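re: that chain from earlier
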Amino acid sequence: MTNLAMTDLCMSETSMTDDSRTAILDAFHSLRSSSPTTPAIMLAERLGISEGALQAARLGEDVVTITLSPKALAARFASLGRAKALTRSRHAVLEQQGYYPLLQGGAHAGLMLDPGGLDLRLLFGHWHWACLIRDTLPNGERLSVQIFDRYGRAVHKLFSLSSAPSDTWQTLWDEGTIDCPEFVGQAEPDTPAAPIQTPPGLAEDWASLSDVHQFFGLLRRHHLTRHQANSLMEGHFTRAVPKNSVEQLLTKAANDGLSIMLFVGNPGCVQIRTGIVPQPVRARGWLNLFAENATLHLDDAAIERVWEVHKPNRDGGVTSLEAFDARGELVLQIYGERREGSAESPRWRTLLEKLGHRHQAA
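^ sequence. v structure.
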């Protein structure tokens, strides 16, 4: 792969001048030289810009814009070879190693179904800019495809783990351009106001669910966020539990050898890891799971509310543990492993029942 020439590049959180791009690149190279393994998101935070803007400043050096449609790009993932898939919410990061399955779905939403492997739900409307990046690290070159939303926040990342990357990587580079993304800044979402009263029919609609995927329609009909709905249905379909319930649950699941499903996501991508989990390990204030071919990093100090949530379905219902931050954003969800058409594991429900109530001492 050869470098592209940079000509009249003008990109920004809204508009980046040549001088500001030069300043970003100088700071990036200095930080990367002194700390080559520091994640790009941390470098961007030090520079006071979005991660997307940082990578866009590198266009023409070791970054190219991928001009494929989101669906066409996702369709190529299966041909990129063994990879590390990374998806983050605001306070959780899920990394898995494996091979991407073939893409299913339509132009607006994609499915990559491989329970126990790389298992993803893709919402293409939030894919604003995709790029291919060549990073030079102490142990050699690292290739990655990275997707960002319109705020410059990472939606999903794919890192090559092959010693000899497939021809698809070269094709993506050859097709790449130096087209500049336009980001809209780093606006943070507002904390949603709690509804004053329960919308008419909410409880009835919830009780009539026959498939967990119908829940998204329920939220839209009643103009609610997931956090708001859980709060309104507390004592009916939800139960508030202590903030440390996530750590308790992961520890108990590890002790019992119970296979669980970890959901970590953002508006553009949800990544799911299914399997038995190791004992949680705390490091630098974060809670971590270091499993074979999978890692979860969780800033559980940012968790503000946790609910046990039950949703009816044709198979007797499914129950999850859902953790939210102070803004009402979903940090992660945890389910017991369950195959479509099968009832939920009694062991999973027993595990949840052992969790305390929110007002009990943790």
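The chain is about 25% helix and 30% strand.
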